[in-house]
């Protein structure tokens, strides 16, 4: 929804909706479950939202890295944390 | 995550985390799936986020109503839309 919000702000509703539909075709979407929310809130992540993202990511079997613009918020992560530039 | 954000702003990290953990015990959490995201983006909802909430809600078998502070954003809904005051 953040991605949609930014797209809509830069373009318009139709373009943003088409772009999101396109993205959904390419991406594997993780089901956010109660278990993930509980793990996130019980974790050491300072921000609940960071925890939700991290524990969603690690449900993916063959995940090799987690990409973020805020590497320092993910210091306790058990998978490699990369910035966009490091991709 | 919005709820956590508001709680943390009003109290502190520990209190907010405890409150969320408590809430998670009482609430039925809907798994947000790719199908829900596609339905939301293809729907007539002006805001993608409203669509995500609505289509998450209607996956619940015995749902009787949807509670919101913005009833007018859910005009096209097929289930009763109530404000908090109408509960």
Overview of this protein structure:
Two copies of one chain form a homodimer. With 87 residues, the first copy, chain A, is mainly α. Chain A has a domain at 1-29. In chain A, 48% of the residues lie in helices and 5% in strands. The longest helix of chain A is centred in the N-terminal third of the chain and has 14 residues, at 13-26. Chain A is globular, with a radius of gyration of 15 Å. Chains A and B meet through helix 1, helix 2, helix 3 and helix 4 of A and helix 1, helix 2, helix 3 and helix 4 of B.
Low-confidence stretches of chain A: none
Oligomer: homodimer
Question: How far apart, in Å, are the first and last alpha carbons of chain A?
Answer: 24 Å
Structural class of chain A: mainly alpha
Proportion of strand residues of chain A: under 5%
Helical content class of chain A: 40-55%
Count helical runs of chain A.
Answer: 4
Strand order of the largest sheet of chain A: 1-2
Biggest pleated sheet of chain A: 2 strands, parallel
- Which radius of gyration of chain A do the C-alpha atoms yield? 15 Å
What's the number of extended β-strand segments of chain A?
Answer: 2
Order of helices and strands of chain A: HHHHEE
Overall mean pLDDT of chain A = 92
Largest interface: A-B, 23 and 23 residues
Based on CA inertia axes, which overall geometry of chain A fits?
globular
């Amino acid at each position: 929804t953040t991605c949609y919000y930014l797209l809509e702000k830069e373009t318009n509703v139709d373009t943003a909706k088409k772009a999101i539909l396109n993205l959904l075709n390419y991406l594997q979407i993780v089901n956010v479950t109660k278990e993930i929310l509980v793990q996130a809130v019980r974790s050491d992540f300072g921000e609940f939202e960071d925890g939700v993202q991290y524990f969603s990511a690690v449900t993916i079997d063959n995940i090799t890295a987690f990409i973020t613009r805020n590497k320092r918020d993910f210091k306790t992560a058990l998978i490699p944390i990369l910035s966009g530039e490091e991709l």
